[in-house]
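sry for the spam today, last one i promise. struct tokens for design, 164 residues
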């Protein structure tokens, strides 16, 4: 049985720990005290659009001087998935589609914006794009479905796992 992550202090799904830049930290990044994907800043605009500032760490290099595609997909999952969280709603990714428009240079400032396209029942349809700063060239686009969950989600998963 794996050792539980001590970083999960109770049910903090609505109020996760955040960095000074406002970035909500996932389980593993809580121990590091920073987003290991390189997300530095996060905020929710008055218009409901979430903004993220980040740079691809050198450790995520795929081709020469450009990001591994898995980093780009992870960042889009993370950033789009933070939008419900910024609205104090716990959700998980059910579907994610990523378009890799241009290679993403490592260690260069980029921005991700995420917005809700529509909501149906427990489903949030969220879209977003990654752009190169300062010019704003589009590097990647993503869209997906996030399904809202109650805080018992992970406990139910553990119970299910114990029966496998
Ligand atoms: C915490 C601080 C962290 C701090 C910061 C961390 C932020 C992390 C951000 C990244 C987010 C992630 O990566 S989350 C991790 C990756 N994702 C996961 O682990 C999810 C694994 N999958 C699942 O747990 C499950 O398949 C679910 C929950 C998605 C669906 O389970 P289910 O059993 O089908 O649920 P059910 O109640 O029947 O369905 C609920 C609703 O979802 C719809 N639905 C189900 N599957 C899909 C689907 N593939 N595509 C579209 N819609 C779907 C159903 O039609 C239904 O709609 P309706 O009838 O209600 O309308």
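last one done:
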């Amino acid at each position: 049985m794996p050792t539980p992550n001590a970083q999960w202090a109770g049910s903090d799904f609505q109020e996760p720990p955040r960095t000074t830049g406002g970035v909500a930290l996932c389980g593993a990044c809580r121990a590091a005290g920073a987003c290991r994907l390189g997300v530095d800043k996060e905020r929710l605009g008055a218009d409901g659009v979430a903004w993220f500032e980040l740079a691809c760490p050198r450790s995520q290099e795929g081709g020469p001087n450009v990001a591994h595609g898995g980093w780009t997909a992870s960042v889009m999952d993370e950033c789009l998935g933070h939008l419900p969280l910024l609205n104090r709603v716990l959700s998980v990714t059910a579907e994610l589609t990523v378009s890799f428009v241009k290679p993403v240079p490592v260690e260069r400032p980029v921005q991700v914006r995420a917005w809700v396209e529509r909501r149906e029942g427990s489903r949030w349809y969220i879209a977003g794009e990654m752009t190169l700063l300062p010019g704003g060239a589009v590097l990647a686009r993503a869209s997906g479905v996030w399904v809202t969950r109650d805080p018992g989600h992970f406990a139910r998963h553990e119970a299910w796992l114990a029966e496998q």
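The first strand starts at residue 39 and ends at 44. ok im logging off now
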